[in-house]
């Protein structure tokens, strides 16, 4: 390392003694190891940065769209009340069957799908190296925000675009007239057709007086 410094200093001394208008003080400053180190560092950085040249193609896609975020599950104490009411109306229409009460059990609560504004930014750049090789760099950034609307009470609420009913686990039916095996069978078949359940998940019991 010392020999390298001596060679550099000697070269600078030779060049500057032969140059017009330079004195010994200037030569000493130019031969300073710190100054030479800074010069070498600058040259090294220039060579390194020239190895890769980036040709930015710019933003290829920059759009804002409204999409749907994944469903958010909210459990309620009595999901599917509307389903129970509709089923009671249907079964009460069966001849000889009346006073129908329906209870549905579910695997989980209802699910709601909320509207969301999705902002997507797609950027593609191309890098070329000194040997002529290229490589593409693709960046895809997404930001989502749930759409809010003002409710009847003035508070902000998420905008629901779909309600997904829970999957029915079993059905209990209490009704008058199902003491008759034929009527009981009709009730079971009606429930199976509506809810697509097997017979062993439908229980039908006679109602009280």
Task: Outline the structure in words.
By secondary structure, the protein is of the alpha+beta class. Among the domains are: 2-51, no CATH class; 78-108 and 166-209, GMP Synthetase, Chain A, domain 3, CATH 3.30.300. Helix content is 33%, strand content 41%. It is built from five helices and ten strands. The chain has helices spanning 2-17, 24-30, 33-51, 81-92, 181-195; strands at residues 52-68, 72-73, 98-106, 111-129, 134-146, 148-150, 156-158, 160-164, 168-176, 202-206. Strands 1, 2, 4, 5 and 8 form a five-stranded antiparallel beta sheet that branches. Strands 3-9-10 form a three-stranded mixed beta sheet, with helices on one face. It has a two-stranded antiparallel sheet with strand order 6-7. Strand 9, helix 5 and strand 10 (202-206) form a beta-alpha-beta unit. The chain is rod-shaped, with a radius of gyration of 41 Å. The N and C termini lie far apart (109 Å). The relative contact order is 0.15.
